[in-house]
Protein backbone atom coordinates (compact mmCIF):
# COMPACT_ATOMS: atom_id res chain seq x y z
CA UNK A 1 0.00 0.00 0.00
CA UNK A 2 1.23 3.49 -0.79
CA UNK A 3 2.70 5.52 2.04
CA UNK A 4 1.56 8.79 0.43
CA UNK A 5 -1.57 9.31 2.59
CA UNK A 6 0.45 8.75 5.78
CA UNK A 7 3.27 10.95 4.50
CA UNK A 8 0.85 13.77 3.77
CA UNK A 9 -0.96 13.44 7.09
CA UNK A 10 2.11 13.54 9.37
CA UNK A 11 3.53 16.91 10.52
CA UNK A 12 7.19 17.14 9.54
CA UNK A 13 10.29 19.29 9.96
CA UNK A 14 12.83 20.16 7.27
CA UNK A 15 16.41 20.88 8.38
CA UNK A 16 18.52 21.18 5.23
CA UNK A 17 17.16 23.66 2.73
CA UNK A 18 18.89 26.51 0.90
CA UNK A 19 16.42 29.31 0.31
CA UNK A 20 18.26 30.34 -2.88
CA UNK A 21 17.67 26.75 -4.03
CA UNK A 22 13.90 27.21 -3.94
CA UNK A 23 13.87 29.82 -6.72
CA UNK A 24 11.46 28.44 -9.32
CA UNK A 25 12.02 28.96 -13.06
CA UNK A 26 8.76 30.97 -13.05
CA UNK A 27 9.92 33.37 -10.34
CA UNK A 28 13.40 33.63 -11.90
CA UNK A 29 11.80 34.56 -15.21
CA UNK A 30 9.48 37.10 -13.60
CA UNK A 31 12.25 38.79 -11.57
CA UNK A 32 14.64 38.89 -14.53
CA UNK A 33 11.97 40.82 -16.40
CA UNK A 34 11.27 43.08 -13.41
CA UNK A 35 14.94 44.06 -12.99
CA UNK A 36 15.96 43.79 -16.64
CA UNK A 37 18.53 41.08 -15.87
CA UNK A 38 19.75 39.20 -18.95
CA UNK A 39 19.41 35.43 -18.52
CA UNK A 40 21.10 32.90 -20.82
CA UNK A 41 17.67 31.33 -21.47
CA UNK A 42 14.79 32.12 -23.86
CA UNK A 43 11.94 30.73 -21.75
CA UNK A 44 10.98 29.30 -18.39
CA UNK A 45 11.06 25.84 -19.96
CA UNK A 46 14.67 26.39 -21.05
CA UNK A 47 15.60 27.24 -17.48
CA UNK A 48 14.16 23.97 -16.20
CA UNK A 49 15.77 22.01 -19.06
CA UNK A 50 19.22 23.37 -18.14
CA UNK A 51 19.13 21.64 -14.74
CA UNK A 52 21.30 18.64 -15.62
CA UNK A 53 24.41 18.37 -13.48
CA UNK A 54 27.60 16.28 -13.45
CA UNK A 55 28.72 17.22 -9.94
CA UNK A 56 28.30 19.81 -7.19
CA UNK A 57 30.23 22.55 -9.00
CA UNK A 58 28.20 22.34 -12.21
CA UNK A 59 25.08 22.91 -10.08
CA UNK A 60 26.61 25.74 -8.04
CA UNK A 61 27.51 27.64 -11.22
CA UNK A 62 23.82 27.79 -12.26
CA UNK A 63 22.60 28.33 -8.71
CA UNK A 64 24.75 31.45 -8.17
CA UNK A 65 23.82 32.74 -11.62
CA UNK A 66 20.10 32.25 -10.87
CA UNK A 67 20.38 34.13 -7.56
CA UNK A 68 21.39 37.26 -9.48
CA UNK A 69 17.70 38.07 -10.17
CA UNK A 70 17.13 38.58 -6.41
CA UNK A 71 17.58 42.31 -5.96
CA UNK A 72 15.13 44.02 -3.58
CA UNK A 73 13.40 43.26 -0.29
CA UNK A 74 10.22 42.10 -2.00
CA UNK A 75 12.14 39.54 -4.11
CA UNK A 76 13.50 37.89 -0.95
CA UNK A 77 10.02 38.05 0.61
CA UNK A 78 8.51 36.33 -2.46
CA UNK A 79 11.21 33.66 -2.44
CA UNK A 80 10.64 32.80 1.24
CA UNK A 81 6.87 33.10 1.02
CA UNK A 82 6.65 30.68 -1.91
CA UNK A 83 8.82 28.14 -0.07
CA UNK A 84 6.75 28.45 3.13
CA UNK A 85 3.57 28.00 1.11
CA UNK A 86 5.08 24.77 -0.27
CA UNK A 87 5.81 23.77 3.35
CA UNK A 88 2.19 24.34 4.27
CA UNK A 89 1.05 22.19 1.33
CA UNK A 90 3.33 19.34 2.47
CA UNK A 91 2.46 19.54 6.17
CA UNK A 92 5.91 20.83 7.14
CA UNK A 93 5.30 22.62 10.43
CA UNK A 94 8.90 23.59 11.22
CA UNK A 95 11.77 24.47 8.91
CA UNK A 96 15.39 25.54 9.43
CA UNK A 97 16.35 27.51 6.35
CA UNK A 98 19.90 28.24 5.19
CA UNK A 99 20.71 31.44 3.37
CA UNK A 100 23.99 32.47 1.73
CA UNK A 101 24.60 36.14 2.59
CA UNK A 102 27.82 36.33 0.55
CA UNK A 103 25.96 35.46 -2.66
CA UNK A 104 24.16 38.76 -2.15
CA UNK A 105 26.64 41.00 -0.33
CA UNK A 106 29.18 40.37 -3.13
CA UNK A 107 26.61 41.98 -5.48
CA UNK A 108 26.09 44.98 -3.20
CA UNK A 109 22.89 43.62 -1.64
CA UNK A 110 23.16 43.77 2.15
CA UNK A 111 21.59 42.13 5.18
CA UNK A 112 19.26 45.16 5.41
CA UNK A 113 17.67 44.07 2.08
CA UNK A 114 17.31 40.28 2.41
CA UNK A 115 16.74 39.87 6.16
CA UNK A 116 13.58 42.03 6.32
CA UNK A 117 12.19 40.11 3.31
CA UNK A 118 12.88 36.70 4.87
CA UNK A 119 11.54 37.75 8.27
CA UNK A 120 8.34 39.29 6.91
CA UNK A 121 7.50 36.06 5.06
CA UNK A 122 8.37 33.94 8.12
CA UNK A 123 6.17 36.07 10.36
CA UNK A 124 3.23 35.85 7.95
CA UNK A 125 3.59 32.07 7.62
CA UNK A 126 3.57 31.75 11.39
CA UNK A 127 0.39 33.82 11.63
CA UNK A 128 -1.38 32.17 8.65
CA UNK A 129 -0.36 28.55 9.13
CA UNK A 130 1.47 28.21 12.46
CA UNK A 131 4.72 27.29 10.68
CA UNK A 132 7.94 28.05 12.56
CA UNK A 133 10.96 29.06 10.53
CA UNK A 134 14.50 29.31 11.93
CA UNK A 135 17.32 30.88 9.92
CA UNK A 136 20.81 29.42 9.41
CA UNK A 137 23.40 31.87 8.09
CA UNK A 138 25.86 29.96 5.89
CA UNK A 139 29.40 30.88 4.89
CA UNK A 140 30.58 30.10 1.36
CA UNK A 141 33.61 27.83 1.80
CA UNK A 142 35.14 28.69 -1.58
CA UNK A 143 35.68 32.22 -0.23
CA UNK A 144 38.30 33.13 2.39
CA UNK A 145 38.33 32.84 6.16
CA UNK A 146 38.55 36.64 6.23
CA UNK A 147 35.35 36.94 4.14
CA UNK A 148 33.57 34.60 6.57
CA UNK A 149 34.69 36.75 9.54
CA UNK A 150 33.40 39.86 7.73
CA UNK A 151 30.06 38.14 7.12
CA UNK A 152 29.79 37.15 10.79
CA UNK A 153 30.40 40.80 11.67
CA UNK A 154 27.88 42.10 9.10
CA UNK A 155 25.24 39.75 10.55
CA UNK A 156 25.62 41.21 14.07
CA UNK A 157 22.48 43.43 14.00
CA UNK A 158 20.48 40.33 13.04
CA UNK A 159 21.85 37.86 15.62
CA UNK A 160 18.49 37.68 17.45
CA UNK A 161 16.92 36.39 14.22
CA UNK A 162 19.60 33.76 13.52
CA UNK A 163 19.62 30.29 15.12
CA UNK A 164 22.77 28.75 13.67
CA UNK A 165 25.71 29.29 11.34
CA UNK A 166 26.61 26.87 8.56
CA UNK A 167 29.14 26.09 5.86
CA UNK A 168 28.28 25.29 2.24
CA UNK A 169 29.34 25.63 -1.43
CA UNK A 170 32.27 23.81 -3.15
CA UNK A 171 33.47 21.15 -0.75
CA UNK A 172 36.54 19.62 -2.42
CA UNK A 173 39.66 21.70 -1.72
CA UNK A 174 37.89 23.68 1.02
CA UNK A 175 38.03 21.47 4.14
CA UNK A 176 36.35 22.50 7.39
CA UNK A 177 39.74 23.27 9.00
CA UNK A 178 39.90 26.41 6.82
CA UNK A 179 37.11 27.85 9.02
CA UNK A 180 38.06 26.48 12.46
CA UNK A 181 38.73 29.96 13.90
CA UNK A 182 35.49 31.41 12.48
CA UNK A 183 33.39 28.68 14.08
CA UNK A 184 35.26 29.01 17.37
CA UNK A 185 33.96 32.60 17.43
CA UNK A 186 30.47 31.44 16.34
CA UNK A 187 30.43 29.03 19.29
CA UNK A 188 31.56 31.77 21.71
CA UNK A 189 28.65 33.87 20.48
CA UNK A 190 26.33 31.03 21.53
CA UNK A 191 25.03 29.86 18.14
CA UNK A 192 24.41 26.32 16.96
CA UNK A 193 26.70 25.06 14.19
CA UNK A 194 26.09 22.98 11.07
CA UNK A 195 28.37 22.21 8.14
CA UNK A 196 28.14 20.41 4.82
CA UNK A 197 30.61 17.54 5.03
CA UNK A 198 31.00 14.19 3.32
CA UNK A 199 28.78 15.07 0.37
CA UNK A 200 31.57 14.92 -2.23
CA UNK A 201 34.36 15.26 0.32
CA UNK A 202 36.06 12.32 2.08
CA UNK A 203 35.37 11.08 5.64
CA UNK A 204 38.35 13.20 6.77
CA UNK A 205 36.22 16.32 6.14
CA UNK A 206 33.49 14.91 8.41
CA UNK A 207 36.10 14.27 11.14
CA UNK A 208 37.18 17.90 10.82
CA UNK A 209 33.59 19.19 10.97
CA UNK A 210 33.05 17.22 14.19
CA UNK A 211 36.40 17.80 15.90
CA UNK A 212 37.46 21.24 14.66
CA UNK A 213 34.13 23.00 14.05
CA UNK A 214 32.17 21.29 16.85
CA UNK A 215 29.11 20.87 14.65
CA UNK A 216 25.70 20.14 16.16
CA UNK A 217 24.59 18.52 12.89
CA UNK A 218 26.26 17.31 9.71
CA UNK A 219 24.69 18.30 6.39
CA UNK A 220 24.78 15.27 4.07
CA UNK A 221 27.52 13.16 5.75
CA UNK A 222 26.58 10.16 3.63
CA UNK A 223 30.25 9.18 3.14
CA UNK A 224 30.68 8.54 6.92
CA UNK A 225 30.03 4.85 6.27
CA UNK A 226 33.45 4.57 4.60
CA UNK A 227 35.10 4.93 8.04
CA UNK A 228 33.84 2.57 10.79
CA UNK A 229 35.40 4.64 13.60
CA UNK A 230 33.69 7.76 12.33
CA UNK A 231 30.38 5.95 11.98
CA UNK A 232 30.69 4.69 15.57
CA UNK A 233 31.41 8.22 16.85
CA UNK A 234 28.44 9.73 15.00
CA UNK A 235 26.19 7.00 16.35
CA UNK A 236 27.48 7.30 19.91
CA UNK A 237 26.98 11.07 19.96
CA UNK A 238 23.72 10.82 18.01
CA UNK A 239 24.99 13.61 15.76
CA UNK A 240 22.23 14.17 13.22
CA UNK A 241 22.82 13.76 9.49
CA UNK A 242 20.59 15.86 7.23
CA UNK A 243 20.45 13.67 4.14
CA UNK A 244 19.10 14.83 0.75
CA UNK A 245 18.40 11.85 -1.52
CA UNK A 246 17.28 13.61 -4.72
CA UNK A 247 20.17 16.08 -4.37
CA UNK A 248 22.67 13.19 -4.16
CA UNK A 249 21.14 11.66 -7.28
CA UNK A 250 21.06 14.93 -9.30
CA UNK A 251 24.66 15.79 -8.35
CA UNK A 252 25.91 12.28 -9.17
CA UNK A 253 27.03 11.53 -5.61
CA UNK A 254 25.23 8.26 -6.42
CA UNK A 255 24.21 7.02 -9.89
CA UNK A 256 21.03 5.25 -8.82
CA UNK A 257 18.69 6.06 -5.93
CA UNK A 258 18.37 2.32 -5.29
CA UNK A 259 22.03 2.48 -4.14
CA UNK A 260 21.44 5.23 -1.56
CA UNK A 261 22.65 4.32 1.94
CA UNK A 262 20.10 6.37 3.91
CA UNK A 263 18.08 3.40 5.16
CA UNK A 264 21.26 1.50 5.94
CA UNK A 265 22.43 4.48 8.06
CA UNK A 266 19.03 4.53 9.77
CA UNK A 267 19.21 0.80 10.48
CA UNK A 268 22.68 1.30 11.98
CA UNK A 269 21.08 3.56 14.59
CA UNK A 270 22.14 6.98 13.26
CA UNK A 271 19.94 10.04 13.71
CA UNK A 272 19.21 10.45 10.00
CA UNK A 273 16.71 12.91 8.49
CA UNK A 274 15.32 13.48 4.97
CA UNK A 275 15.54 16.91 3.33
CA UNK A 276 15.22 18.57 -0.08
CA UNK A 277 18.39 20.79 -0.22
CA UNK A 278 17.62 22.84 -3.40
CA UNK A 279 14.19 21.57 -4.43
CA UNK A 280 13.58 23.58 -7.60
CA UNK A 281 16.99 22.58 -8.98
CA UNK A 282 16.89 18.91 -7.94
CA UNK A 283 13.38 18.06 -9.05
CA UNK A 284 11.51 17.65 -5.81
CA UNK A 285 10.40 19.11 -2.50
CA UNK A 286 10.50 17.21 0.80
CA UNK A 287 7.55 14.90 0.18
CA UNK A 288 8.98 14.00 -3.25
CA UNK A 289 12.19 12.92 -1.49
CA UNK A 290 10.22 10.66 0.86
CA UNK A 291 8.22 9.21 -2.07
CA UNK A 292 11.44 8.53 -3.96
CA UNK A 293 12.71 6.52 -0.98
CA UNK A 294 9.51 4.51 -0.93
CA UNK A 295 9.76 3.69 -4.64
CA UNK A 296 13.53 3.22 -5.04
CA UNK A 297 14.42 1.66 -1.68
CA UNK A 298 11.16 0.17 -0.46
CA UNK A 299 11.10 2.38 2.65
CA UNK A 300 8.45 0.97 4.99
CA UNK A 301 5.96 2.68 7.29
CA UNK A 302 8.10 2.25 10.40
CA UNK A 303 11.14 3.77 8.67
CA UNK A 304 9.04 6.69 7.42
CA UNK A 305 7.77 7.37 10.92
CA UNK A 306 11.28 7.13 12.39
CA UNK A 307 12.67 9.57 9.80
CA UNK A 308 9.90 12.05 10.63
CA UNK A 309 10.40 11.72 14.41
CA UNK A 310 14.12 12.27 13.74
CA UNK A 311 13.36 15.51 11.87
CA UNK A 312 12.07 17.03 15.12
CA UNK A 313 14.66 15.36 17.38
CA UNK A 314 17.49 16.74 15.22
CA UNK A 315 15.98 20.24 15.06
CA UNK A 316 17.01 23.25 17.13
CA UNK A 317 13.50 23.56 18.59
CA UNK A 318 13.21 23.83 22.39
CA UNK A 319 12.75 20.44 24.12
CA UNK A 320 9.08 21.10 24.92
CA UNK A 321 8.29 21.69 21.22
CA UNK A 322 10.20 18.56 20.20
CA UNK A 323 8.15 16.55 22.64
CA UNK A 324 4.94 18.08 21.40
CA UNK A 325 5.66 16.96 17.82
CA UNK A 326 7.07 13.48 18.53
C1 LIG B 1 24.43 23.17 -1.92
CL1 LIG B 1 23.83 20.61 -2.49
C2 LIG B 1 24.86 21.85 -1.89
N1 LIG B 1 26.07 21.55 -1.46
C3 LIG B 1 26.88 22.52 -1.05
N2 LIG B 1 26.52 23.81 -1.04
C4 LIG B 1 25.30 24.12 -1.48
N3 LIG B 1 24.69 25.30 -1.59
C5 LIG B 1 23.48 25.09 -2.08
N4 LIG B 1 23.30 23.79 -2.30
ZN1 LIG C 1 22.94 21.68 1.07
Q: How does this model look, in words?
A:
- There is one protein chain.
- The chain has 326 residues and is of the alpha/beta class.
- It has a single domain, classed as Metal-dependent hydrolases (TIM Barrel, Alpha-Beta Barrel).
- It contains 17 helices and 8 strands.
- Strand 5, helix 10 and strand 6 form a beta-alpha-beta unit.
- Helix 5 packs parallel to helix 7.
- The longest helix has 19 residues.
- It is globular, with a radius of gyration of 18 Å.
- The chain starts with a helix and ends with a helix.
- The chain binds 6-chloro-9H-purine and zinc ion.
- 6-chloro-9H-purine (ES4) binds next to helix 4.
- The site of 6-chloro-9H-purine (ES4) has 11 residues, from helix 4.
Please supply descriptive tags for the structure shown above.
326 residues, TIM Barrel, 17 helices, 50% helix, binds 6-chloro-9H-purine, binds zinc ion, nucleotide metabolism, A_deaminase_dom, EC 3.5.4.2, Adenine deaminase
* Approximate shape: globular
Question: What percentage of amino acids are in beta strands?
Answer: 5-15%
Mean pLDDT: 98
Per DSSP E runs of 2 or more residues, the count of β-strands stands at 8
Calculate the terminal CA-CA distance, rounded to whole Å: 24 Å
Structure classification: alpha/beta
Organism: Alteromonas salexigens
Binding site for Zn(2+): 16, 18, 196, 277
Protein name: Adenine deaminase
InterPro entries: A_deaminase_dom, ADE, Ado/ade_deaminase, Metal_Hydrolase
Amino acid sequence: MSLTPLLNSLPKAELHLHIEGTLSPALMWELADKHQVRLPYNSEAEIAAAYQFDNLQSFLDLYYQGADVLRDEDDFYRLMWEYLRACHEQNIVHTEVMFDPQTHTERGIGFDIFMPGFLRAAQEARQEWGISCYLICSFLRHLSEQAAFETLEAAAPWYPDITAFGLDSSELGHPPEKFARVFKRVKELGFAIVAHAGEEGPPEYIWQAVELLNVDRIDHGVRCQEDPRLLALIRERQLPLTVCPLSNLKLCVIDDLAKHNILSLLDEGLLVTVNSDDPTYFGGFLNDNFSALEHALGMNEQQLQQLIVNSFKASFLPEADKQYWT
